[in-house]
Amino acid sequence: MNVRIDDMDRKILRSLQADASQSLDEIASDVGSSKTPVWNRIRKMRDAGIIGQQTVVLDADALGFEACFFVLIRTSEHDAAWQANFLKALQERAEVQEAHRLAGDIDYILKVRVPNARAYDAFYQALISEVRVHNVTALLSMEEIKSTTMLPL
User: Fold this and answer.
1) Residue 77, CB-side half-sphere exposure with 13 Å CA sphere
2) Does the model's pTM come out above 0.90?
3) CATH: 3.40.30.10, 3.40.250.10, 3.30.70.260, 3.30.70.920. Which one for 67-140?
4) Contacts of 111 (CB under 8 A, 6+ apart)
5) CB–CB of 71/112 below 8 Å?
6) How far apart are CA 29 and CA 41, in angstroms?
7) Where do the structural domains in the chain lie, given as residue ranges?
8) Where does 7-47 sit in CATH, by number?
9) Structure confidence by residue, pLDDT tens digits, 100-149
């Protein structure tokens, strides 16, 4: 479904991105409208798939997930069976927060969040026992400078 969004929709989306736990009254006040039109627009955007799953953002460090690794993967195998097995292995691992297939020299990049280097090694050993990869490079993030899920509307 192709839905056009206007300036009011963008205001609503910005407000929701900032804090999706706001009440409808708060969102309407924030965007300068009343509840019913705001609710109808939110419902329209949900139905169109513009607004997806709503979650909360947790503090990884506070919960003991202090190590963030970016894992660069090169593979010499590109057939459908290998890819299905690889994707299944990634989906089954909660440590993988993001996975992207890339153009260029690196085939995949993963964002992996774990408590420490020992936990990363356990993740790595489990992954390579399930899928064959040509080369894996793990980069430890020393400091998170910016992290957001907000789109620049």
Assistant:
1) 12
2) no
3) 3.30.70.920
4) 68, 69, 70, 71, 96, 97, 98, 99
5) yes
6) 15
7) 7-47, 67-140
8) 1.10.10.10
9) 999 999 999 999 999 999 999 999 999 999 999 999 999 999 999 999 99
